[in-house]
Amino acid sequence: MSLFYSNLQKSLFRYAELVEHSNSLGLSEDAIDAENLFCAFLNQAFGRKLANANEDNKNQHSFDLANKKQNLVVQVTSNRQYSSKLKDTVAGFKANRAGKKKSRLIILFISKKCPKSVLKTVTEANFIYEGYDIPKLLDKVYYSNKTTSQLKKLNQIFQDATSPIFINSTFPEMESRTKVEALPVQPVSINKKGIFIERKALIENIFSFGQTANGILTGGPGVGKSFTIAQLQQFCYKKKVRCSIIRINELLDGTDEELNSELKTETNWISALKKIKLTNNGFKGLLIPAQPPGF
User: Are residues 280 and 144 in the same domain?
Assistant: First the structure.
């Protein structure tokens, strides 16, 4: 279950980056598609039976999704002016529902983080509203979907939406779907249950992760960390992407002078790395401090 939930986290954050990037280019299609995506997602995750309100009333004011029987409406927005957007949405919704039954309004921001003041639940006489960002939505999903089968269905919604992009919209697809690149296969031990490692997918995933974040590759002695790093470097070489490995066991003090020598730079190693230009394919180079095999 944790694997599917972890992948769902990545997919949702990746989607938020995709929408943000599209907005910066003046492209509105992703923001519009988000209404239908989150409609399907919320229905699958919480059984809300929401419908896109814009189907009946184009450019529906103050909300996008609705379940009239439950008096529940949802505004899906990528607006980064969180407080003013919340205020305007609430004011508009209240002005159009005077005298109606008690309703609940959720403002779902397609954002990796909103101010806490926006995420509060506010209860008035016959009206409840609250803001959600992606982390708050994920928390809700975690406690409402306990089985692998539930999380697999949720994963599929946003994996399809972000395909074929690996990590975020600013990087091109790594592999042609028709191209198969052979990587050496590491022998693995097999116990009673069986252990099978898809080495090529592992290398691709680590490479994609390294394009947007820093991380630590962990594992006990002999599980294949050094082998994986070596194959990652080979993978980068074939992609014409710079990948430098620093063997930390060969460093005595970790000073700039030692690092300059290890990386074979004539100037300060940080300055030297900054001068390396990205290749035409847009990928970033990787710098990997590594222990020797067996550690």
Answer: no
Q: Are residues 130 and 206 in the same domain?
A: no
pTM for this prediction? 0.55
In a domain, 171, yes or no: no
Contacts for 240-243 with beta carbons within 8 Å, 24 or more apart?
A: 240/279, 240/281, 241/279, 241/281, 241/283, 241/284, 241/285, 241/286, 242/276, 242/285, 242/286, 243/285, 243/286, 243/288
pLDDT tens sequence across 18-67: 888 777 766 666 666 888 899 999 999 999 899 988 776 666 678 889 99
pLDDT tens for residues 117-163?
Answer: 999 999 987 789 999 999 999 999 999 998 888 888 898 888 777 66
- Within a domain: residue 172? no
For residues 13 and 104, membership in a common domain is answered with yes
Residue 111 belongs to domain spanning: 2-162
